[in-house]
Amino acid sequence: MNDDTITIPMQERKRIALVAHDHKKRDLLHWARFNKERLSKHELWATGTTGRLLASELDLYIHRLQSGPLGGDQQLGAKIAAGEIDILIFFWDPLEPMPHDPDVRALLRLAGVWNIPVATNRSSADFLFSSPLMDTTYPREVPDYEAYRQRKVG
Fold first, then answer.
1. Does the annotation mark 73 as catalytic?
2. What residue ranges define each of the domains in the chain, with the CATH number in brackets?
3. Which residue, 6, 32, 38, 116, shows the most beta carbons closer than 10 Å to its own?
4. How far apart are CA 126 and CA 109, in angstroms?
5. Residue 145: CA atoms inside 13 Å, Cβ hemisphere, count?
6. How far apart are alpha carbons 18 and 51 in whole angstroms?
7. Residues 12-43: pLDDT tens digits?
8. CB-CB contact of 92 with 17 (8 Å)
């Protein structure tokens, strides 16, 4: 760590956001079924339809937000900015244009700003979820934005 960063501990029980575009919901559901036991050890959040599907198929409690196009992506972004989400698993469809693409880009940008791990497909989710860091406390470093907050504009 240096003077420009702060450390935020990511606890053993991670707060995981699960999101999938319509054409990727089946892929996320298959991945989640395969990882059900490990997912059950964490706190799960999801946008509307994805959350409903996962909860009914996996019989796990999922905190459900609005559907992505109705503001769910922005709700997740706010939770990331507030330090309430540790990992984003977002199976997005790179071939399908979405009317809420700006919201999707904003969500991914916030994950980058706050240095949280992101998986965007099954392969990256498998690699992230199989990491030994998933089961430990992890010292996540984020930039110290205090100087940015204090700057004078104009």
1. yes
2. 15-131 (3.40.50.1380)
3. 32
4. 22
5. 7
6. 8
7. 999 999 999 889 999 999 999 999 999 999 99
8. no
